[in-house]
Structure formats: structure tokens, C-alpha cells
Amino acid sequence: MLSLEDVTLDYGRFRALDRVSLRAGEGELVVLLGANGAGKNSIFLTISGLHRAAGGSIRFGKFDLLSMKTAQIVRSGVVHCPEGRKLFPGMSVLKNLTLGAYVHRGDDTGNRQRLEEVFALFPILDAKKDDPAGSLSGGQQQMVAVGRAIMGRPKVLLLDEPSLGLAPLVVKQVFEVIARVNAGGTTVVLAEQNAFAALRIAHRAYVIESGRMVMEGAPETLLGNDAVRKAYIGA
User: Fold this and answer.
1) 10 Å Cβ neighbour count for 47?
2) Which residues, 6+ apart, have CB-to-CB distance to 213 below 8 Å?
3) pLDDT tens digits for 217-235?
4) DSSP state for residue 134 in the 8-state scheme
5) Assign residue 228 a region: left if phi > 0, alpha if psi is -120 to 50, beta otherwise?
6) Which strand (E) or helix (H) includes residue 206?
7) How many domains does the chain contain in total?
8) How far is CA 129 from CA 51, 97, 121, in A?
9) Distance between CA atoms of 214 and 211, rounded to whole angstroms?
10) Structural domain for 134, as ranges
11) Between the chain's N and C termini, which has fewer beta carbons within 10 Å?
């Protein structure tokens, strides 16, 4: 469904991605593991059209994403939930969520239905829909960020470090929602440093180091790999 083949990305003279290949089939939950600066964020920004690849191909079904603008990519069904949430703190939770549906702004009925789905996933957001997003806890702000992405009607949801800075209980809740979204048929590509939590819900996983894919396999394979365990699980 989503495929990257030999994708390269340069920041000036620095090669951020070096012939990266990745695939995520329909309905899969694929985890991308890597340390800070390994290239996870660069992969997502390139898929989303915010950075332009120096080479390779990125396809989503019939779409050549490298030839499309970001808004067109979102409209095609590939939606990016960025690292750091990137909310508008002075705007209400409801307005932040509504912005996620901007490319579908002509479909009020569909947007209301999607908003109800978000509130069903995150009931606390319904209770706080009129509160400024900046007044929410870190975990609740992450829920807004994920909910905003869901408002974009993703067929493929790119989630960049959703557990970063969250308490363990909140991490558990967020990952449960991610698993539910995936179970509903949405393909998910999840970039994470929290390997143990991510691999528990994944179908397949990749490891990226210094802009290169160094490993791919089933979650149990990576959990059983000593190097992966030492680098990302601490055992």
C-alpha cells in the first residue's frame, strides 16, 4: 500500500537518508525504531512532501507521492501526526481538531462523523472541547494531536514519537488507541524509541541507524535480538 524504494534525502552536504526502503501493507501496523537523529523524522517529512527526496520513489497505491504537494498527499489518505504535537495552544481543542479536516472542509456531515469517532476514542477531549489546547496535560495534548490526524481521514497514519515525554500510564492508553485505530482498518506507521511498547502492537518492524535501514523483521525477532534489546529496551 505504502512503499519507499531507495529513498535518499540530503540536508546540504549531509545525507539524512541513504537508500531507505520501507513498505506498509493495507491494514498493517509497522514500527520504525531508531535513536534521536537516526532518520525517523526525515522519513515521515519526506513521505508527507515537506522535504523533497534527492532520489528513489515513494508510492501509495496508484499515487506517486514525490510528484504531489502536501495537501494532495493528505487528500490521498496519507496523514502525518508530527513529533512534538504542534498544536495551537491558544485555540480550543475543538478548533485544533477541526483543522485536521481542512482538506475535507466541504464535507460537513463527514467531518461531524469523524469528530464523533475521535471523541469516542478520547472521551476526555469531548469534555474539554472548549478549553484551550495549551491548558491540557501533556497526555491530553497528545490525544488532540492524534485526534487531529484522524480528522484527516487517514488510510495511512504516520505517527511520530507519540509516547515522547508521557507518563507510563498515558503511554499505555495512547498505544491502546493506536491499536484500535489499526484494528479498524487504518494502516499505521509508528516511529518510536519506546521499542517494548511499540513492538507489542506491531505486525512488522524496521530499525534505522544513521539514515540507513539496518534490520527488518517480525516483532518477536527484534525483541529477541540482543543488539536491539540493548539499544532500545535496556536489557
Assistant:
1) 24
2) 20, 21, 22, 206, 207
3) 999 998 888 877 777 765 5
4) G
5) alpha
6) strand 204-209
7) 1
8) 33, 9, 14
9) 9
10) 2-233
11) C
